[in-house]
Amino acid sequence: MSNLAGLESARSGSILFSSTLVVLYYDHLLTLESEIRLLWKRPKNAGVYVFFLNRYIAFFGNIVAAFSLFSTSLTPSRSVICGHNPERVIFTIE
């Protein structure tokens, strides 16, 4: 793959990722009032905990993913390379 094609692919991926984040966080804002009313104020059971785990792992995990994707301070020498594409840096270790 040429450098230009790789940059276009990375840009398209960044735009798609950003779009999905907007939808995810918009959904969280729209449903937060119902979540508080229906889940936070009732007795907790396994189903409620699974719901919270599923909802908030995506919420906080995507913050980390967005930071790693859009951060200008990440360099390959300070980062761990993950996945099948060695050009893509996912997170840092400091």
Helical region count? 2
Radius of gyration: 18 Å
Silhouette = elongated
Name the beta content range: 5-15%
- Summarize the amount of helix as a percent range: 55-70%
Strands, total number: 2
Structural class: mainly alpha
First-residue to last-residue Cα separation: 32 Å
Q: Which spans of ≥5 residues are poorly predicted at pLDDT below 50?
A: 81-86
- Which whole number gives the mean pLDDT? 77
Q: Domains counted in the coordinates: how many?
A: 1
User: What is the H-and-E element order?
Assistant: HHEE
The major β-sheet equals: 2 strands, antiparallel
| Biggest β-sheet: strands ordered side by side in the sheet | 1-2
How would you characterize the overall build of this protein?
- It comes from Collybiopsis luxurians FD-317 M1.
- The protein is mainly alpha-helical and 94 residues long.
- It has one domain (3-92).
- The protein has helices at 3-40, 46-70, and strands spanning 79-81, 89-92.
- A two-stranded antiparallel ribbon has the order 1-2.
- A hairpin with a 7-residue loop joins strand 1 and strand 2 (89-92).
- Helix 1 (3-40) packs antiparallel against helix 2 (46-70).
- The protein is elongated and about 55 Å long.
Describe the SSE topology:
Layout: H1 3-40, H2 46-70, E1 79-81, E2 89-92
Antiparallel strand pairs: 1-2
Brief sketch in words of this structure:
By secondary structure, this protein is mainly alpha-helical. It has helices at residues 3-40, 46-70; strands spanning 79-81, 89-92. Residues 81-86 have low confidence and may be disordered.
